[in-house]
Write a structure and sequence with these properties.
Oligomer: single chain
CATH class of the largest domain: Mainly Beta
CATH superfamily of the largest domain: Hexapeptide repeat proteins
Radius of gyration: 26 Å
Shape: globular
CATH architecture of the largest domain: 3 Solenoid
Mean pLDDT: 87
Strand order of the largest sheet: 3-5-10-13-16-17
Number of strands: 30
Largest sheet: 6 strands, mixed
Low-confidence stretches: 31-38
Number of helices: 14
């Protein structure tokens, strides 16, 4: 079908929604009025092997020089810290000073490097593996590895983006997973929020070229969880782009409108159900101060103090190696145990104060509690340790998920589940999740949030990388395809399959699936589970 030029854009959505040849032909013969993405000649280039290897060698050299310089600076800092081994108070003060110096030093170096190597980004196209690309790559690497990116969504992170050239309005909140690169081309208005896992880069790679272009988001706008904005796109004032959606190059959402899907189309669904308030600057300052004090005074000094202990272990090499080996083992298992305790206890303690259905202002005490609960219960290490095994259901239940009656498959969940509040997550009986499920447990604007329970029905099967909102309109016995956009309006979907963004219905099960299920009885399934682990 796609070999015909006029039908080259036909998709599976077209096939499912127009299941007969006559209806499909009629559909493909009509121009799609909603397609507003830019169609232009595509530059194509294939770099020479020489350019490829030279650029790779330059990247390797950069890694070597940057690593050497960073390690040299840290080593000098550690030696300065060890000079105070005999004075515990002075040692602690130097630990705090060293951690602050590394944090601001690496972040500041990334900002300086951007302005020295690139200056201001401008809309252009340049070939991959050339000198221009190498400078682009160095800047991208530095700004994404700066420690300040750990503070995504905070006022400090907004300041960092502004120092890199991003135009940010007052109270704008950027929770995007990937750090924007071509920052001078990005403009975000006041009281706008970009939710977690969203992506705004300011560039795209295509056919051997890096293309950079403007990206504009107005004031009081909303970009949902897991959504992406390409270059040359615009979101107007008060507009919304829903979860799991994307704006393709050339698309624009008018002021006040709501769009969703990939590519996005107009909708009446409301994705931002918490309205903006006006948080005080003092609240934002105090929130950031608490974060930095916790990082510099507690989190970072502990491993530095632990490391300094080995300076006093002894002069005998063999003795030192043995003690270090024991200490490393104890540290590893101690970290796992501490992470497990934090993941199971902290959310339960914070939820004594946090109440679903109540609206709280950002950057206050309750927001800090929510941040701590989310951070402590989303342990990547524990997810990898227990994921894709029979143990995962016990771990997820321990941290607070309500799994109801579990039917063990040996791999009920993958290794990368995320949530915003584990005690507000519920999974129905006989539901199986592939990997990458993100349970959205709050409605959030640029200045307020409200926790809500999120429930997935019984006998569901979820593909990879699904962002499930608290107001998702799916019920029991639903097949949710990989990266499907969960509908939040309309009738409750049950006994169907959903695919695409916006989601469209497909059969829940085909004859092949029924034959596979019929071929395995319950006793045989139970015998096979231990082998799966």
């Amino acid at each position: 079908l796609r070999t015909r030029k006029e039908w080259a854009t036909a998709s599976m959505r077209d096939i499912y929604l127009h299941p007969t040849v006559a209806r499909l032909a009629l559909h493909l013969g009509v121009a799609d009025e909603m397609t507003t993405a830019t169609n232009e000649p595509v530059l194509t280039r294939r770099a020479s092997n020489f350019a490829y290897w030279i650029c790779g060698a330059a990247q390797l050299l950069f890694y070597a020089l940057y690593s050497y310089g960073a390690l040299w600076a840290v080593n000098d800092g550690l030696n300065w810290m060890y000079d105070a081994l005999d004075d515990p108070l002075q040692l602690y003060i130097r630990c705090v000073a060293l951690s602050a110096a590394v944090f601001f030093g690496m972040s500041g170096f990334a900002v300086i490097a951007k302005w020295v190597l690139v200056g201001r980004w401008k809309a252009e196209a340049f070939p991959i593996w050339g000198v221009r690309y190498f400078r682009f790559w160095v800047v991208k690497t530095l700004i994404r590895t700066a420690p300040v990116v750990l503070f995504r969504g905070s006022p400090l992170y907004s300041i960092y983006l502004q120092l890199l050239g991003t135009k940010l309005g007052k109270n704008a909140v950027i929770e995007s997973k990937s750090v924007p690169v071509c920052t001078d081309l990005i403009s975000i208005g006041a009281n706008t929020i970009l939710r977690k896992e969203s992506m705004i880069l300011g560039f795209r790679a295509q056919s051997g070229y890096i293309h950079t272009g403007p990206l504009t988001i107005g004031r009081d706008a909303f970009v949902g969880v897991g959504s992406t904005l390409d270059i040359d796109t615009r979101i107007g004032d008060g507009a919304q782009l829903g979860h799991s959606s994307s704006l393709h190059r050339g698309q624009s959402i008018p002021d006040g409108e709501r769009w969703h899907g990939s590519p996005a189309v107009p909708t009446t669904a409301d994705y931002c159900k918490v309205r903006n308030v006006d948080p005080s600057n003092i609240r934002r300052f105090l929130f950031e101060a608490v974060q930095l004090i916790g990082l510099f005074a507690i989190v970072t000094p502990l491993p530095l103090l632990f490391h300094s202990y080995w300076e006093n272990v002894g002069d005998d090499y063999q003795e030192t190696i043995g003690v270090v080996a024991i200490g490393t083992t104890v540290t590893l298992f101690g970290y796992i145990a501490a992470s497990f305790l934090a993941a199971t206890l902290v959310p339960r303690l914070t939820n004594l104060i946090l109440k679903p259905g109540r609206t709280y202002t950002l950057y206050g005490f309750r927001y800090w509690l929510q941040t701590v609960a989310e951070f402590s219960s989303n342990s990547r290490v524990l997810g990898l340790l227990f994921g894709d095994s029979s143990a995962i259901v016990h771990y997820i239940r321990a941290i607070g998920w309500n799994l109801n009656k579990v039917v063990q498959t040996g791999s009920n969940f993958g290794s990368n589940q995320q949530h915003e509040n584990p005690l507000l997550c519920e999974i129905g009986t006989e539901t199986m999740v592939s990997d990458g499920l993100f349970m959205i447990n709050m409605h959030k604007s640029a200045s307020a949030f409200r926790l809500e329970p999120t429930r997935i029905g019984e006998r569901n099967y979820l593909g990879n990388n699904i962002y499930y909102p608290p107001d998702g309109r799916t019920g029991d016995n639903v097949l949710l395809g990989t990266k499907v956009m969960i509908p939040i309006d309309g009738p409750l979907r049950e006994n169907v399959g959903l695919l695409g963004s916006p989601a469209f219905e497909i059969p829940r099960m085909v004859n092949r699936d029924k034959e596979l299920i019929a071929g395995v009885d319950e006793d045989d399934r139970r015998r096979r589970i231990p082998h799966k682990n």
